[in-house]
Amino acid sequence: MEKKRWLVREVSAWLIAFAILVTTGMIGFATVPAAADDAMDSKQLVEKARLSFDRFVTPKDNQAFRDLLKKAMGVFIAPQILKGAFIVGVSGGSGVFVTRDEKTGQWGGPAFYTIGSASFGLQIGGQASEVVFLAMTERGVNALLGSSVKLGADVGMAAGPVGAGVSAATANLSADIVSFARAKGAFAGISLDGAIVKVREGLNEAYYGKKVDPIDILIKRDVKNRQAEELLNAVSKAAYR
Hints:
This protein is an alpha+beta fold. It has helices at about 1-25, 30-55, 65-70, 140-145, 165-170, 200-210, 215-220, 230-240, and strands at about 75-85, 90-100, 105-115, 120, 130-135, 150, 155-160, 175-185, 185-190, 195-200. It has one domain. Helix content is about 40%, strand content about 25%. A hairpin with a 5-residue loop joins strand 1 (about 75-85) and strand 2 (about 90-100). The longest helix has 26 residues, at about 30-55.
């Protein structure tokens, strides 16, 4: 029985990884156009992330998100999560991660990632189209600095509170990462347990013009891209309201 469970877990992990690769276009046949595609994809992803972030911050019915954002050390934004029709229940997409410097308070990044799961569990009906999660602790940030992390296993997760009584709910949260979703205009807490987040090396390289990893981008801050200023300004402004 134990061996069977192990096999199921291994197969699920491979399916999730495959879904990420296909959904984000990382499996391909032409290598020369890939660099140009990555440059365009990275730019568009940052622009979509900024628009998506604005949709989370602006509405009055998402007060919990704004309250937690003020304390957050990092913000991960996935503007679009798609459900793969080729494997029932597998979802995936791409996202960007920005972090706050503990000393200066300035926001930096973004670094690029994929995120995939066998299923994203919404607290309300419908499929998640936009996902944002907040890294509330140093452990939460550090978990995303590696090449890959399994949420809920390698780092503590909690679905963000929505609706009435959110002030009390946010005060009692102690998770490393708190996640929110927006589907069909409505906000919801979302379970990301088991989701795998992996670095998109190609997009990072294309966006910054050289090979870099999340530590170079988010901690050392050796590289910058002026195209990210609108996103960083939006996060900074919202975090200090």
